[in-house]
Design goal:
heterodimer; A: alpha+beta; Porin; eight-stranded antiparallel β-barrel; 8 strands; B: six-stranded mixed β-sheet
């Protein structure tokens, strides 16, 4: 439970820091930013696969800008994973290209970094007592690299296709393997509903 | 309607790897130990001399493992292969699948022991589903190979009673962790060596050190051998000659006899 609280705490801190960094100056008709207004998400997100779970849902911040943060809870039932897997996914996204089309349609390519966390008695963030220091890195956390393409329609809904590559899969590339979705990575897609 | 069709198309294009922490082993990689023991039993009648390939610590180098498999396949003298643990770095399914895909390409049987890295995350369940029991034995050419799980940190204990009950003078021990003070206390290492000496085993075979070279020493007339890490396409050969003498060779592009 302590571990879970630490994770939730770090999520809140990273959220506040990100929002503070991207906060706009208040205009005459815009009230000054408060912590509460920062916590109101810019978008609601549903995701399938890309290692985030069979189905994941959460909120997005900074969704209209070039930097964004998504916080998702994902679930994979035992029918698809052998046991029920619960994950929390913190995704930092960097939109690197933007091509606007007619009818207010916009294509945006992005790269991202993500940290997956899963809570289970067999997984750990802090090394259990029986091990010497630094014996293993945390097994409950998995960093990922992300690349995706986002189609935003009328600034109300976005559809994304995303490829996620785990840190543990980089060894396949280091060893001379090709970037083949058959061997490594996970394709997924998401739907984003922009709230303002 | 168009949106639903688009979502359906997207979902069908997505991979079925939903989470890194899955434990559902693909059916083609289920119960591999049992299948390999059947292959071993189906070999033509055994006789001396025979040669066993030894692989250790292929984790983190899945393609070097494939290259080692190719090298072993090219050696006609190899009867079967022992994989001495740490098939994976983090006990994750995709790492297990890489290892199983490579090992299944071996032309002759292979048997594995579980390593400490294989047993973290949900690796214990995956190993049991993919391979089978952690402790088991098999016979070949009048010798008994005792495949022993001695990863004390991950399993909480080392079962010296089991190993004691399995050993005699025609026995080879294969375990991931060698008899050095690391996971085991000096008292445990002494007990282990005493059990091996009292039984007069043929040899003691291990991985875990993960080095670029092997380690070979003799104690109480028992050969102790630690294989190198697979990285760099390394493996070893163990030969039991007509006089029941055991010798080891370290192999990269070629093999050199260990003195």
């Amino acid at each position: 439970m302590n571990t879970l609280l630490r994770i939730i705490g770090s999520l809140v801190v990273s959220l506040v820091v990100t929002q503070a960094a991207t906060a706009q100056q208040p205009g005459p008709e815009q009230p000054a930013n408060s912590l509460w207004s920062n916590l109101v998400p810019d978008s609601l997100v549903m995701q399938h696969a890309a290692y985030g779970g069979f189905v994941a849902a959460g909120v997005g911040y900074g969704s209209g800008g070039s930097l964004a943060l998504d916080l998702l809870y994902g679930f994979t039932p035992k029918e698809f994973a052998g046991h029920d897997v619960h994950t929390w996914n913190t995704k930092g996204l960097w939109y690197i290209t933007s091509i606007g089309l007619r009818n207010h349609t916009e294509w945006r390519g992005y790269l991202g970094l993500s940290i997956l966390y899963s809570h289970h008695e067999e997984l750990f963030v802090m090394l259990p007592d029986q091990y010497p220091a630094y014996y293993y890195p945390p097994t409950a956390l998995r960093p990922m690299l992300l690349a995706g393409l986002d189609l935003q329609i009328r600034r109300t809904i976005g559809l994304s296709v995303e490829y996620a590559l785990l840190d543990t899969e980089l060894s396949y590339l280091r060893d001379g393997g090709k970037l083949s979705s058959e061997s490594i990575g996970s394709w997924g897609f998401s739907v984003r509903f922009l709230t303002h | 309607m168009r949106m639903l069709l688009l979502l359906w198309l997207l979902s069908s294009a997505c991979s079925d790897r939903y989470t890194p922490w899955e434990i559902d082993v693909p059916p083609e990689f289920n119960e591999l130990t049992g299948r390999q023991l059947e292959r071993l039993r189906d070999l033509p009648s055994s006789s001396l001399p025979f040669t066993v390939a030894l692989i250790g610590d292929p984790q983190g180098t899945p393609l070097d493992l494939e290259r080692v498999v190719d090298a072993i396949n090219a050696r006609r003298e190899v009867t079967f292969t022992l994989v001495l643990g740490d098939l994976t770095d983090y006990g994750l399914m995709h790492e297990y699948v890489w290892a199983a895909k490579a090992l299944e390409r071996l032309h002759r049987p292979y048997l594995t022991v579980v390593g400490n890295h294989d047993a973290i995350s949900h690796g214990k369940a995956i190993y049991q589903n993919m391979f089978g029991a952690f402790d088991y034995t098999f016979d070949y050419s009048g010798f008994k190979f005792v495949m022993w799980n001695n990863n004390q940190f991950e399993f909480g204990t080392t079962d010296f009673n089991w190993i004691r009950s399995q050993l005699d003078e025609k026995t080879f021990i294969a375990s991931h962790v060698p008899p050095t003070v690391d996971m085991h206390s000096s008292e445990q290492v002494d007990e282990w060596k005493r059990i091996s000496r009292d039984a007069g085993i043929m040899a003691s075979l291990h991985g875990h050190r993960g080095g670029k070279t092997d380690f070979y020493w003799t104690e109480d007339q028992i050969p102790y051998y630690v294989v190198p890490k697979v990285e760099g396409v390394r493996y070893s050969l163990m030969t039991i000659d007509k006089n029941r003498q055991v010798s080891f060779q370290l192999c990269r592009s070629s093999c050199e006899l260990e003195q």
